[in-house]
Design a protein that fits this description.
The complex is a heterodimer of chains A (about 190) and B (about 575). Chain A has about 190 residues and is α/β, with parallel strands linked by helices. Chain A has helices spanning about 15-30, 80-85, 105, 115-125, 135-140, 145-155, 160-170, 180-190; strands at about 5-10, 35-40, 50-55, 70-75, 90-95, 125-130. Chain B starts with a strand and ends with a strand. Classes of the chains: A alpha/beta (about 190), B alpha/beta (about 575). Chains A and B meet through helix 1, strand 2, helix 2 and helix 3 of A and strand 8, helix 10, helix 13 and strand 21 of B. Bound molecules: thiamine diphosphate (TPP).
């Protein structure tokens, strides 16, 4: 429990990142860790970039992760994965949802969406895992559960017991969506070998 | 029991545990969730959205004079609006404890400036506390109430975005009711600030400040920790956490109370360390005061922008010997496309800016979601200074240039109530022939959809009377008023033409609710009929995130069926009738 775990969730407003980071930090707290998380609210619903930093361990001071110290980057969108990649430590993990959401600058032609993001990431970082969270969500019957699929994948790499994840997700998602969330969580988890 | 709370939730909890009876606020990032939490979780507290920060503060003044413990919250710039009552309440003092919680936004994540509100405490001669995490946010609010009552003063508890919107563990305690009786007792020499009384109270204020200086030396939230004596750091708020992270072995003087500062303690600390630094965000607030004491100290901070642990680590890298320090990896310049926020697909504000752009009008703007109208491709907002400024500045442009046919003020409904009304009174009074467009989306969208006097619902969820903007404008003396559906491009076009060309002052109110409020399901969506689409990309000028070009070698457009709200404004814009409605 001595070691501090540093996590960053990144993506685009509307992808359920803030809910996912709520679940992770709540789960970490229930597992007995000291926890801090920090994020920027406000513009998240307007399609801007969204980042949430979470740190847990025995004693946490700063709520912000320092560049090069991030153990796990959970990226809900490819371009945002690239944008935040330099936070990840050499032996850190990156989980990337294979989704492309064009920013307004690309839509209106003032910028180009970068090519070969997947290669750029894998050439630099040892452990990059790609998942199709949207497909998983569709398969589990609720398109809105892509963020839970990401959580499933992340859970495999974090020091938090499985039953706590299940409890917290049950508490945090709407009653009628519990089943689909559980399916998405499991499918996300199964992707990580 | 410990709970994971944001700084904002912890402040609300602190108010609850302190026996607060009245809480008032105007929304503003990053402070908004405090009153939302109070209203949702603590029915013991009367909570209201006031029309602006000045009124919120004044509601607090009255409640405190009547004996209640009061929490008033606002973002940093809100204090500018509330500064008038704040400075004189410093003279009157309180009856029930009064905590002004202001939340700063270094880095301007969602603000028009990044002023350092610590200066307000010094300027108004009142005490200030600065928590560094959620647990302290709760504790300091509670302590704030007792200091306020003990020293007969309003008190500022100042947080910043990284406190307000960070979560950490907080120990829950029970509510303790205040023992001050709830009644207004006449005391004109304290509560009526005519010059004769004010002169007496000013002496009380200076005397109070002296006592607070002594108190600042004794209060246990000033914490000195001597570890490695080579480096000593004086710091407060979130900067303290960054220091602990980056330089865990340095000696630290952590100030929980930053006005007035504990000078003896600072001198003592300075004598115990070899090299003294002050780590603070924005203004050299502590540094200047310490330098004035004749102590040599090096300020570490960034006058502009947010402080970060990375910045500190870089700064201290070569300044420490045989001391543990974190080494951040340098960032890579990658030149990636930016992802600025944009108006939602179907946002009722969009068509207004689209129309104003085509008319090449000068648009004095205001603050809210609609400020996004300044970004490409709409690029149709020419000024934005502070809330309510659109109205007064349109009048100013008219008076300077002698023309009212090429200027339009655009203001949101919540902003109009906040501080647009007095501007409109000025336009009527001083014979403006200008045009004001009120974007009435039935909510305060920018800060996360709060109720306001124009929505007919209170913060506590009760139905109430609704401010009718048209009736209000008429009562003020505006002859030309019109309500327009912003999804009807033709009607919007006509209304704006009529207003700007008229010799009378005009008020136009657009009347479609914020898309995020819409409860019922969409009944139609827009789809591109590729056979008719000629790839002219006229529709892209709307800047709707649902519409994009098919590919770099196919100029025709597609519409994202998940994002489309079915407003059909794009169908009106399309000259080839290639955008059709599909029922869903
Ligand atoms: C003095 C001050 N108080 C509060 C804010 C925070 N704030 C920015 S815009 C806004 C209100 C926006 O509501 P509205 O005018 O209805 O426009 P909408 O976002 O709904 O389009 C608020 C409260 C601020 N910037 N300045």
């Amino acid at each position: 429990m001595d070691k501090v775990t540093n996590l960053i969730l990144t993506g685009v407003g509307g992808q359920g990142i803030l809910t996912a980071s709520e679940i992770i930090s709540e789960a970490a707290a229930q597992a007995g860790h000291d926890v801090k998380k920090s994020e920027i609210h406000g513009m998240s619903q307007r399609g801007g970039s969204v980042n949430s930093h979470i740190r847990f361990g025995e004693k946490i001071y700063s709520p912000l992760v320092i560049k090069g110290e991030c153990d796990l980057l959970l990226a809900f969108e490819k371009l945002e994965a690239l944008r935040m990649a330099d936070f990840v430590k050499e032996d850190g993990n990156i989980i990337v949802n294979r989704q492309q959401i064009n920013p307004s600058t690309v839509i209106n032609g003032t910028a180009k969406y970068p090519e070969n993001i997947e290669d750029k990431l894998t050439s630099k970082y040892k452990s990059v895992i790609f998942i199709d969270a949207l497909n998983i969500a569709k398969e589990s019957g609720n398109i809105r559960t892509a963020n839970t699929a990401m959580l499933g994948a992340a859970s495999k790499l974090l020091n938090i017991p499985a039953d706590i994840w299940i409890d917290v997700i049950r508490m945090r998602v709407p009653e009628r969506a519990i089943e689909a969330n559980m399916k998405s969580f499991q499918m996300g988890l199964d992707i990580i070998k | 029991m410990k709970k994971l709370l944001s700084g904002n939730e912890a402040v609300a909890r602190g108010a609850y545990e302190s026996g607060v009876i009245v809480a008032s606020a105007y929304p503003g990032t990053p402070s908004t969730e405090i009153l939302e939490t109070v209203a949702a979780e603590y029915p013991e507290i009367y909570a209201e959205w006031s029309p602006n920060e000045k009124v919120a503060f004044e509601v607090g003044v009255g409640a405190s004079f009547a004996g209640a413990r009061v929490l008033v919250t606002m973002k940093h710039v809100g204090v500018n609006v509330a500064a008038d009552p704040l400075f004189t309440m410093s003279y009157t003092g309180v009856k029930g404890g009064f905590v002004l919680l202001c939340a700063g936004d270094p880095g301007m994540h969602s603000s028009q400036n990044e002023q350092d509100n610590r200066n307000y405490a010094k300027f108004a001669k009142i005490p200030m506390l600065e928590p560094s995490d959620s647990q302290e946010a709760k504790e300091f609010v509670k302590m704030g109430f007792s200091i306020s009552e003990q020293y007969d003063t309003p008190i500022i508890v100042r947080i910043t975005t990284r406190i307000a919107h960070s979560k950490s563990l907080v120990e829950m305690e029970d509510r303790v009711e205040s023992e001050i009786p709830l009644e207004f007792v006449k005391e004109p020499r304290k509560f009526v600030m005519i010059p004769a009384h004010g002169r007496l109270r000013h002496v009380v204020v200076e005397d109070r400040l002296k006592k607070l200086k002594e108190f600042s030396e004794e209060i246990p939230i000033q914490k000195m920790e001597i570890k490695n004596p080579k480096i000593g750091i004086i710091t407060s708020g979130i900067s303290y956490q960054y220091c602990q992270e980056v330089l865990p072995e340095a000696s630290v003087l952590k100030l929980g109370m930053t006005n007035p500062i504990p000078k003896d303690m600072i001198r003592d600390f300075a004598g115990k360390v070899e090299k003294l630094f002050v780590v603070e965000e924005l203004d050299p607030f502590l540094e200047d005061q310490i330098l004035q004491m004749g102590i040599s100290v090096q300020g570490v901070g960034k006058l502009t922008g947010e402080l970060s642990p990375d910045y500190l680590a870089e700064f201290f890298q070569n300044k420490v010997e045989d001391m543990k320090i974190i080494h951040p990896t340098p960032s890579e310049k990658m030149n990636l496309p930016a992802r600025p926020p944009a108006m939602c697909a179907g946002c009722p504000h969009r068509s207004v800016f689209y129309t104003l752009k085509r008319k090449k009008l000068t648009v004095t703007g205001d603050i809210g979601c609609y400020t996004l109208g300044v970004l490409p491709p709409l690029e149709t907002m020419d000024t934005c200074v502070c809330m309510g400024a659109s109205v007064g500045s349109a009048l100013g442009i008219e008076k300077a240039t002698g023309r009212s046919d090429n200027v339009v003020a655009v203001i949101g409904d919540s902003t109009f109530v906040h501080s647009g009304i007095t501007g409109l009174v000025d336009m009527v009074y001083n014979k403006s022939r200008g045009t004001v467009i009120i974007l009435d989306n039935d909510t305060t969208a920018m800060t996360g959809r709060q109720e306001h006097p124009g929505t007919g619902v209170t913060l506590m969820g009760e139905e109430t009377k609704r401010t009718d903007f048209i009736k209000l404008a008429k009562a003020l003396g505006v002859e030309n008023t019109e309500v327009v559906n912003p999804y009807d491009l033709e009607a919007l076009d006509k209304a704006i033409d009529k207003a700007v060309n008229s010799d009378e002052l005009s008020v136009i109110v657009t009347n479609q609710p914020c898309l995020l409020l819409r409860r019922e399901k969409r009944t139609q969506i827009a789809e591109v009929d590729l056979a008719s689409c000629i790839g002219c990309q006229l529709c892209l000028r709307l800047g709707c995130p649902a519409i994009s070009v098919i590919s770099s070698d196919n100029k025709k457009v597609k519409i994202d069926s998940m994002l489309c709200s079915g407003c059909m404004v794009c169908a009106d814009v399309c000259k080839s009738k290639a955008i059709i409605s599909i029922s869903v």
